[in-house]
Amino acid sequence: MKLENVKLNLDTELVLNIGCPIGKTNAPRVYNKLFEKLGMNAIMLPAEIQKGELPQLLEACKTLNIRYLCPTMPHKADIIPLLDDVDETSKMFCSVNAVKIDEDGTSHGVGMDGKGAVRAMVNGGAKLNGITAMLYGAGSISGVIGYELSRQNVKKLYIANRSREKAEKIAQILRNNTAMEVVVISTDKEDLDQAAAECKLLANLTPLGMKGYPYKHEYLGFIDKMPKDAAVFDCIINPPDSEVILAAKANGLLTIPGMQMLVSQMDVIFDFMFGVTLKEEDKEACIDELCSWLGVER
């Protein structure tokens, strides 16, 4: 990536991807490819910010006129009380991954994980109106994705998780703020098989099967029980053909890999941060860049 668009002058916009650890982040590759393609004098750099250091970072940003932040773990929740303006959904699920700071120092934060994931599902061909769906995992993005699914008129949602307590917390927020029926189940074979028979959508929201992650799914046979017109989504980017995606393909189901979520999320983030609407060719360039960087085929 040549980044000839970056002039390295007083007008160069610096975007920080902040987290801890941050060493394996893919975001700068995608953002910088888009900046290059759109001819924007901007660059994203990763910055490892320790937990508890966000107040100092925000003060430094105002001093240095750094106006854009993309928080990842563990800062998605911690940054919320430090911002001037955060949308209600992001507050509800304690998750912000895009921050914009106005020239007067006013800071705005939004969470785009749910919007990006569900937009990827819809653009990928998933039919969501009136269906029953399953979220596998109750991590930081499950609540916002569940909420966005309710806005697409998903009628019933299963949340499958090893820890029922963690899943119940998310389920109760969804019950209190949506009309959707929400049921928590275990990841035991019997529970998964029974629920899968009803589900027209499965979304894997765990890192199980991700390259470099030491654990894999113990049981994926429940995908065999899903209706033949169901869709399967995975948040994992690498490998593109994850365990879940391969199991779905083996059953002839519609598949939506994690790269589509990343690209759809970029769509809404660029609109929020820069007022820029991405074209399809821009999104395709993102996927090509990421595949090249990861050494995988599309």
Comma- or semicolon-separated keywords:
298 residues; single chain; six-stranded mixed sheet; 11 helices; six-stranded parallel sheet; alpha/beta; 12 strands
Write a short abstract of this structure.
With 298 residues, the protein is α/β, with parallel strands linked by helices.
Shape: globular
Which runs of at least 5 residues are low in confidence (pLDDT < 50)? Answer: none
Total number of β-strand segments?
Answer: 12
By oligomeric state, this entry counts as single chain
Helicity level: 25-40%
State mean pLDDT (0 to 100 scale). Answer: 93
- The number of helical segments is 11
Amount of beta strand? 15-25%
Radius of gyration: 19 Å
Order of helices and strands: EHEHEHEHEEHEHEHEHEEHEHH
Biggest sheet architecture: 6 strands, mixed
- SS-derived structural category: alpha/beta
Q: What is the rounded distance between the termini?
A: 19 Å
List the strand order in the largest sheet: 2-1-3-5-6-4
